[in-house]
Design goal:
With about 230 residues, the protein is α/β, with parallel strands linked by helices. About 40% of the residues lie in helices and about 20% in strands. It is built from eight helices and 13 strands. Helix 6 crosses helix 7. The chain starts with a strand and ends with a strand.
């Protein structure tokens, strides 16, 4: 088992009218130990915030029926009890003016669809840490260290210089160590559910990751005819 430093679990509200998006984000955040509240529209989101004073972060979709994400954000910032609540906007609208609107309205971060669930989880951690709500996690497997606060993977104390995708792969393996993961599952988790690339993309990146890990590369085992398993 890895040695860990992580003492805080957040309560996170996800407001999105697409159930599959809520489920995707919820599943990944729950793996990090967070408690999730779900709302299908803006009015329900405000009601849940009123009923749950301990919410640490709100993730709001912009395009929701009834009150949209911008309107919910405005209500949150107007109310004394929620004025300082960290808010992340989640939307398919990537126009610069929309992002500017959200950030000027008091949003703390802005994520556009399609997105990688792992990247979203990392940004959630960074946002919680930045606002003082969460301490970052670090895990060590012998002399292999995965430091999410510094966004580094180290062997014998030295940063091995992973690319962003190699780093996301390493974090995903760390969070699922000992579990056989199919190539499709890895692709969806790291590259996103809307990625239509070849499954060989996974093999190529894992080959490079193994090389950089040195003696720990062998810990990423091939599960014949299926995928990979990080066995420590």
């Amino acid at each position: 088992m890895p040695r860990r430093k992580w003492i805080f679990m957040a309560v996170i509200l996800i407001a999105d009218d697409e159930a599959r998006i809520r489920r995707l984000v919820s599943d990944f955040l729950k793996r990090d130990g967070h408690t999730i509240l779900e709302a299908g529209d803006g009015n329900q989101a405000l009601l849940l915030l009123e009923q749950n004073a301990g919410v640490d972060l709100a993730i709001l979709d912009v395009m929701m029926p009834g009150l949209d994400g911008f309107e919910v954000l405005q209500r949150i910032r107007e109310k004394e009890s929620t004025r300082r609540l960290p808010v992340m906007m989640l939307t398919a609208r990537a126009e610069e003016l929309d992002q500017l609107h959200g950030l000027q309205g008091g949003a703390d971060d802005y994520v556009t669809k399609p997105f990688s669930p792992l990247v979203l989880c990392a940004r959630v951690k960074n946002l919680l840490a930045r606002t003082g709500a969460q301490q970052q996690e670090a895990a060590a497997f012998g002399s292999l260290e995965i430091d999410e606060a510094r966004h580094e993977v180290r062997v014998d104390g030295n940063d091995i210089g992973l690319t962003p995708k190699e780093y996301e792969l390493m974090v995903y393996f760390k969070n699922n160590h000992g579990i056989a993961l199919s190539r499709e599952k890895i692709l969806n988790a790291v590259w996103g559910y809307d990625y239509f690339g070849d499954l060989r993309t996974v093999d190529t990146h894992i080959k490079k990751l193994r090389a950089k890990l040195g003696e720990y590369g062998s810990k990423i085992e091939t599960v014949r005819g299926y995928g990979y398993r990080f066995e420590v």
